[in-house]
Amino acid sequence: MRKWLPALAVSTAFVASVLTAPQALAQDSKPVPEKVPGTNVEFSPSAARDPQTRALAGANAAAVQAGGLLCGSGYKLSYVDPLPDSRRFGTLFTYYKEVTRPAKSGACAVFDNNLGVKKHMKLKLCWTTCKVDEGTFLDYAGPVKYESNDSTFQPRCAVVNALMWEGDVAIIDRQTHVAACD
């Protein structure tokens, strides 16, 4: 029994240090933001928890990176939406940034054309006013971006409309928020 006591004391001290060390480190450090693999674009907290957005973002890293560059510094990916459904004629990418005043918070959207032929597309982003990009596009519509330092602005709640036409028929007509809106 005496032979085991020193070993037991050492192993108990080791276990105690292993269990308490991560807590001490966690209290003194900020969480590291999670980025879309292969990009420098961060996931928003809701996107990081959404399996569909994570999967589509990972499979479309180049488009996520391009959208992040078009939107600008500080924007996080909030949603990737294949439109109109799994046929995926287009893909809506939404981004937002929330910052403390006096800097501007913002909402941004890019609407990819996945058909490989020019289509009439319209992308609209609204808060108190609307920003619109409409035309015939081979690659994408947007970015449309709304930025404000107004304390009432909630970038996640900005409304996005994505439309695509085949002749006179809308083959995509989606309205959503930039992110989960409380």
Please characterize this protein's 3D structure:
With 182 residues, this protein is of the alpha+beta class. The chain is 27% helix and 37% strand. It is built from four helices and eight strands. It has helices at residues 4-28, 45-49, 51-59, 61-71; strands spanning 76-83, 90-97, 105-113, 119-126, 130-137, 140-148, 159-166, 169-177. The strands form two sheets. A four-stranded antiparallel sheet has the order 1-2-3-6. The chain has a four-stranded antiparallel sheet with strand order 5-4-7-8, with no helix packed on it. It is globular. The N and C termini lie far apart (62 Å). The relative contact order is 0.14. Residues 1-26 have low confidence and may be disordered.
Task: Describe what is shown at a glance.
This protein is α+β, with helices and mostly antiparallel strands. It has four helices and eight strands.
Task: Draw up the topology in text.
Layout: H1 4-28, H2 45-49, H3 51-59, H4 61-71, E1 76-83, E2 90-97, E3 105-113, E4 119-126, E5 130-137, E6 140-148, E7 159-166, E8 169-177
Antiparallel strand pairs: 1-2, 2-3, 3-6, 4-5, 4-7, 7-8
